[in-house]
Amino acid sequence: MAHDEQLAWEVRAGKPVAGTAFAAAFMAIASGIYLQAAARGADGADEYLHEVDQHPTDFIIGGVLVAVAALLVVPTLAYLYRVTRYRRAELMPAALYLAVLGAVTIAVVSVWRYVELTSVADNFFPFTGTDAKDAAEDEIRDALPSAIQGVGLAGSIALAFGTVMISLNAMRAGLFSRFMGILGIFVGILLVIPLGVQIVQLFWFAALGLLFLDRWPGGRGPAWQTGEAIPWPGAQQQREEIERRRAEREGLLEPEEPQAEAEPESDPQAEPDVQRPSSRKRRKKR
User: Fold this and answer.
1) What is the C-alpha separation between 240 and 254, in angstroms, rounded?
2) Tens-place pLDDT, residues 219-228
3) Residue 256: predicted pLDDT
4) Which of 14, 101, 244, 285 has the smallest C-beta neighbourhood within 10 Å, fewest atoms?
5) CA dihedral 7, 11, 13, 16 (to 10 degrees)
6) 126: cis peptide before it, omega within 30°?
7) Predicted pLDDT at 244
8) 244 Cβ contact partners less than 8 Å away, ≥ 6 residues apart
9) CA distance 198 to 29
């Protein structure tokens, strides 16, 4: 693909991909809220299983919403991979393959988990043991076979690796500021080590949407316009650029014009190169 065609494609594809980034952030919130509402304030694992047994469809729908949120990550990372690799060929294609495979795996395992959970809840009641709470916790923990749990963990690791590698190379190519690059790496780590700070993932995907739409505060880095790996300007450079543009809009500063090439100065001490007529010998007449 030619250089101009690549840049035109990035502008054209950036708008729908920004929509998927916003949708990924929204679906992550929606799925969490929906599953909390489906639990209906259950206190303890036994009450939670009771709600699953009474309203199994609600929890299956919640699993589907989690799967949709995971799948919406795919076009977002795929677009970011393509614009990054065009500027930085060192980015391995394996980063994209692992990200896609990991997101699809997480989606499948999420639906599978809630389907199995409804089956566990159906078999758990009526409970005839002595400690319903501990027994329910064991049943929920073992709802999926160990092999499927391992597959789900492998999917999370694959998506985390792809997210970290794409974010790191996007930062090195100048498509990300240092803040966005480090935040993307942190988001990848949270996929493997969940720390209960989901707001970080939500902010990062929403910020990606603004970046893809060229609505980033202070403007995007020059790498987006040139198609080349140019470092993202620092905070001081961005402030100076914003002040310069404001001054131009208010008429306090004339727009910069391209400077004409300076003519080489002549050296006064240099001797002029004067061509002397060649002497001709006259033939003597005999």
Assistant:
1) 15
2) 899 999 999 9
3) 53
4) 285
5) 170
6) yes
7) 66
8) 253
9) 9
Q: Which residue has the tokens 């916003």?
A: 22
- Annotate the chain with three-state secondary structure: CCHHHHHHHHHHHHHHHHHHHHHHHHHHHHHHHHHHHHHCCCCCHHHHHHHHHHCHHHHHHHHHHHHHHHHCHHHHHHHHHHHHHHHCCCCCHHHHHHHHHHHHHHHHHHHHHHHHHHHHHHHHCCCCCCCHHHHHHHHHHCCCCHHHHHHHHHHHHHHHHHHHHHHHHHHHCCCCCHHHHHHHHHHHHHHHCCCCCHHHHHHHHHHHHHHHCCCCCCCCCHHHHHCCCCCCCCHHHHHHHHHHHHHHHCCCCCCCCCCCCCCCCCCCCCCCCCCCCCCCCCCCCC
